[in-house]
Inverse folding.
């Protein structure tokens, strides 16, 4: 075997290795989804979505948990979206580049890596106890807002960084103020990227369990929340609750609820991908 | 033969007529510029070491010199585009029609409406052709649609782009060719009716035909504006400018009528540079 053949062989071997590595993740996901579908697909019907939780597995539904998740999602969006985007815009466009801003930057990245349970403890102390919100949807949403704020800030900054300097120059040179430039050029141009980041962050929030348990979300609530101060449950907690029951019927319920939760996150991620592609096209 | 000549003559006549009509669209805005004792630093780096210059209204002035000589930095002083650069510091005065633009109470946004700028790479906004030209007016808070429409058409006519785009004003500016994009950027600058137009190597990213069009345009613009252009192209400087300034490592080596600079420069360095012996 000469050296050219040797190199070709190495090339082939690496390619096979790469394919194998890629497949491991995909196959595992496929097995998992397949297993869940087999267990839970039969259980999904309209009544499963509209029924309240019950002691009998076949009568139980996810209505309260689903509504809780939707409440959490909406409130978290309302809180985290404007805060995160504004902070990102400030850091990228206004903050002077000095040691302090560098420190700020490192800390925000660190915050993104803090375990979510720590945010739960923070939420418990600040929102539930000090602010007296109790174990409410609002307290949960504020806690999750803190959790995803760093992700939104980082995504916003990346999206803004991707706007060419030449666009800013053009706007300033025509007599635009900083705010006019941000409002008319930078935000529209980076909007797709920002939206993508926000949606991905929210799809993480909708799957979070630990911080909400700490904040005091309940495993069993008889009613869906009707205002931000109501107590609540969310899908992941409902799933956790069902899975820990011995009866087979509840295992089936858990699988069905997982399908619904996965569906929600897949749809959200799909929307994010759609925005990203649309946005990239605009710039090419 | 005679017939052909006649047709040719009439063609030239209509062309001159069109050009005259195009220029009659705006009043003479041109401003006078004085720079006194200009020194610039970026952190510790002394980019400009003390320059005085006077630029007359209704002229084209070319800044030439090797890369890094400070000509772009100097150009960007006139509309204060260096203000955002980290570590920028300056001394001296830039006076436009007698007013120092670095005085404390100067409104930078107002200044930039007076001193327009065209950049090296065409940088249209990712919006429609119309929106690009109307942007400068809209950020001034002008809402009168008729007024905006008129100004946009006028600016596009001045920039010699109207005939090419008049049926596609809603089309994305990014779909235009590079040369058209640059003329759009010029139109965008003209729409706010500045008195001075700064051009930072406006043709360096363009093909020769687009370049020729823009050079024609610059030549005609001086009837209404004061034009300053940074260029690396010696032929371009000699073709379109009335005055030429030669910069070298932060100093103004020579500043004179273009004809004099290119035929009989006073400084040996200038001669070496324009004949291509260094730089």
């Amino acid at each position: 075997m000469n050296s050219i053949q040797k190199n070709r062989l190495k090339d082939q071997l690496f390619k096979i290795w790469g394919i194998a590595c890629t497949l491991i993740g995909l196959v595992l996901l496929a097995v998992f989804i397949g297993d869940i579908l087999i267990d839970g697909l039969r259980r999904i019907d309209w009544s499963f979505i509209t029924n309240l939780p019950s002691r009998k597995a076949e009568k139980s539904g996810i209505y309260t948990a689903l509504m809780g998740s939707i409440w959490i999602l909406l409130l978290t969006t309302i809180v985290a979206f404007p805060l995160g985007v504004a902070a990102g815009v400030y850091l990228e466009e206004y903050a002077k580049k000095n040691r302090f801003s560098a420190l700020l930057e490192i800390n925000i990245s660190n915050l993104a890596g803090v375990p979510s349970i720590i945010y739960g403890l923070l939420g418990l102390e600040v929102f539930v106890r000090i602010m007296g919100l109790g174990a409410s949807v609002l307290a949960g949403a504020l806690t999750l807002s803190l959790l995803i704020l760093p992700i939104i800030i980082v995504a916003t900054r990346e999206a803004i960084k991707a706007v060419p300097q030449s666009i800013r120059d053009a706007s300033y040179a025509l007599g635009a103020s900083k705010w006019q430039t941000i409002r008319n050029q930078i935000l529209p141009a980076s909007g797709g990227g920002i939206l993508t980041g926000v949606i991905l962050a929210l799809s993480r929030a909708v799957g979070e369990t630990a911080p909400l348990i700490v904040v005091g979300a309940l495993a069993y609530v008889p009613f869906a929340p009707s205002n931000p101060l109501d107590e609540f449950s969310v899908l992941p907690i409902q799933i956790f609750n069902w899975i820990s029951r011995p009866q087979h019927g509840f295992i089936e319920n858990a699988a069905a609820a997982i399908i619904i939760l996965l569906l929600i996150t897949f749809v959200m991620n799909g929307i994010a991908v759609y925005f990203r592609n649309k946005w990239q096209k605009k710039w090419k | 033969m005679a017939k052909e000549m006649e047709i040719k003559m009439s063609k030239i006549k209509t062309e001159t007529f069109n050009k005259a009509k195009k220029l009659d669209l705006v009043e003479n805005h041109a401003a006078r510029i004085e720079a006194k004792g200009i020194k610039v630093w970026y952190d510790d780096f002394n980019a400009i070491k003390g320059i005085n210059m006077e630029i007359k209204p209704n002229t084209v002035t070319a800044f030439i010199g090797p890369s890094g000589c400070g000509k772009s930095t100097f150009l960007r002083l006139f509309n204060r585009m260096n203000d955002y650069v980290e570590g920028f510091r300056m001394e001296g005065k830039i006076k436009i029609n007698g007013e120092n633009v670095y005085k404390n109470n100067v409104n930078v946004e107002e200044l930039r409406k007076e001193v327009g700028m065209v950049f090296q790479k065409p940088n249209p906004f990712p919006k429609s052709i119309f929106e690009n030209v109307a942007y400068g007016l809209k950020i001034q808070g002008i809402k009168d649609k008729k007024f905006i429409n008129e100004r946009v058409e006028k600016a596009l006519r001045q920039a010699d782009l109207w005939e090419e785009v008049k049926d596609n004003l809603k089309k994305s500016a990014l779909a235009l060719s590079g040369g058209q994009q640059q003329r759009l950027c010029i139109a965008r600058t003209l729409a706010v009716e500045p008195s001075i137009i700064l051009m930072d190597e406006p043709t360096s990213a363009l093909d020769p035909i687009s370049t020729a069009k823009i050079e024609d345009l610059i030549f005609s613009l001086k009837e209404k504006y004061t034009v300053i252009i940074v260029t690396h192209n010696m032929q371009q400087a000699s073709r379109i400018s009335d005055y030429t300034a030669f910069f070298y490592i932060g100093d103004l080596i020579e500043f004179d009528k273009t004809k004099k600079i290119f035929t009989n420069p006073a400084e040996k360095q200038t001669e070496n540079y324009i004949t291509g012996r260094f730089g």
Summary: The first strand of chain B starts at residue 33 and ends at 42.
